[in-house]
Amino acid sequence: MSDEQKWAGTTYGNDWMHRWLIRMLRYVDTRVFYLFVAVFVIPVCLFLNPSSGICYRYFHRRIGYGRLKSSWMTYVNHCLFGQVVIDKFAMYAGKKFDIEIENFDALLRLVTKKEGFVQMSAHVGNYEIAGYTLPIQNKRLNALVFAGEKASVMRNRDRMFADTNIHMIAIRQDMSHLFEIERALADGDIVSMPADRIFGSQKFIEHDFLGAKARFPLGPFSVATMRELDVLTVNVMKTSLRSYKIYVTPLHYDKTATRKEQIRQLSLSYASELEKRVRQYPTQWYNYFEFWKND
């Protein structure tokens, strides 16, 4: 079984824990939970979870930090990941964050078009916040989510998205979600999907990423080029305890080229933009599996 398949794809904890966390976050400052996680949870995770070694190698080999700094940044990375998970539940509890948006006009231009488009994300920052802070009325946003996510998380997503024009498409092993994607794009809507993790179909395309060959899932780029659609990325990065910055970036490719070349150009554009954000925010890379196979 591959590393991608071993990844559970679910938020840690059970339904009861999630409900109590949301209730407590209605009254307790998020910084209290940040501190608790940093002191009592993360050290245990670093000791028991293989993500610590994977993260250390990312900082040491790909970012180029020394051994001591790589070890410290591994701890910081896990603390930040804990914070973005807490922030997600804080939003479920009704708390707000300060949001800055860069290049929002690029998204608005595509929304006014008749054709649908593809919005690509990655496992950096806190992408889910974009769904709560970028309400779009002109088009329906169809967001791909993992089908095995905890029921409590799915319920809270449903509640948060109730007053928005957002629909969730569950990613399934039988690939049936592809039919929903096709219908959404045929209707001129938006499809949002992660493009940095192979799941389901094992087809991939390789690009240089942070100095070594890395595999990106072929599916998102194939979906976009099949209809020669416009594509953009949305990355939501944590900038302070109470603030996030949303980066909206159009991805360009030659729609007159062959299909194979379109996929190559689009995936390369995505990989380049993702590398830019990862270098800008190296501690907010949350892909805890061996991303570089031959590293």
Q: What fraction strand? A: 15-25%
Alpha-beta classification: alpha/beta
**SSE string:** HHHHHEHEHEHEHEEEHEEH
Report low-confidence residues grouped into runs of 5 or more.
Answer: 1-10, 148-152
DSSP strand count: 9
Main-sheet strand order equals 1-9-8-2-5-3-4
Q: What is the overall number of helices?
A: 11
What's the short version?
The protein is an alpha/beta fold. The protein has eleven helices and nine strands.
Task: Walk me through this protein's architecture.
- It is built from eleven helices and nine strands.
- It has helices spanning 3-6, 15-25, 30-48, 51-63, 67-92, 104-111, 128-133, 151-160, 177-186, 218-226, 259-280; strands at residues 98-102, 117-121, 141-146, 166-171, 190-194, 204-209, 212-217, 230-240, 243-251.
- A hairpin with a 2-residue loop joins strand 6 (204-209) and strand 7.
- With 295 residues, the chain is of the alpha/beta class.
- The protein has two domains: 3-92, no CATH class; 98-284, no CATH class.
- The strands form two sheets. Strands 1-9-8-2-5-3-4 form a seven-stranded mixed beta sheet, with helices on both faces. Strands 6-7 form a two-stranded antiparallel ribbon.
- 33% of the residues are buried.
- 47% of the residues lie in helices and 20% in strands.
- Helix 4 crosses helix 5 and helix 10 (218-226) crosses helix 11.
